Amino acid sequence: MAKSLFGGKGIIIREAHFPGRAAIEAYGNGGFRFADMSHRGSLLCLPSGIHGWQPADPSALTSADFDKVLAEAADIEILLVGMGKDLRPLPAALKAVLREAGISADPMSTGAAVRTYNVLLAEDRAVAAAFIAVD
């Protein structure tokens, strides 16, 4: 039997997380670039940092997809939701949950959300974002 090079524990896969706030430098090809790094897949940009995000169904978002956002609601006034290539409204139930938490949610295309996020972040606003990756 071969021994593992990792002390017998195997490879540990951790959740993608950048512990800081950073502007989004580029998006497309299924991912994003920020802070001289790249991430494949969708992102949550929160006061606690930038997190990899995988909504259960990007075309039918639910409040469960926003648990991390809701956990940091006290530090968020505006949530920009990049819905992909095209603008789609947020489900009414999700908007109600976010509003109840004191968060104003604005859906838009991912490109528009990235640009708006960068401006609001530069203005040091209490902004967060949920970006669905686009090809």
Task: Explain what the structure shows.
The structure is a single chain. The protein has 135 residues and is an alpha+beta fold. The protein has a single domain, classed as MTH938-like (Hypothetical Protein Mth938, Chain: A). It has 3 helices and 9 strands; from the N terminus they run E-E-E-E-E-E-H-E-H-E-H-E. It has a 6-stranded mixed β-sheet with strand order 1-6-5-9-7-8, with helices on both faces. Strands 2-3-4 form a 3-stranded antiparallel β-sheet. Strand 2 and strand 3 form a beta hairpin. The protein is globular and about 35 Å long.
Q: Which CATH class is shown?
A: Alpha Beta
| Strand neighbour order, sheet with most strands | 1-6-5-9-7-8
Structural class: alpha+beta
Per DSSP E runs of 2 or more residues, the count of β-strands stands at 9
**CATH topology tier name:** Hypothetical Protein Mth938, Chain: A
Protein name: Mth938-like domain-containing protein
Organism: Mesorhizobium retamae
Pfam family, one: DUF498
Concise synopsis of the structure shown:
The protein is of the alpha+beta class and 135 residues long. The protein has three helices and nine strands, in the order E-E-E-E-E-E-H-E-H-E-H-E.
Task: Give a quick set of tags describing it.
globular; Hypothetical Protein Mth938, Chain: A; 20% helix; 3-stranded antiparallel sheet; alpha+beta; 3 helices; disordered N terminus; 135 residues
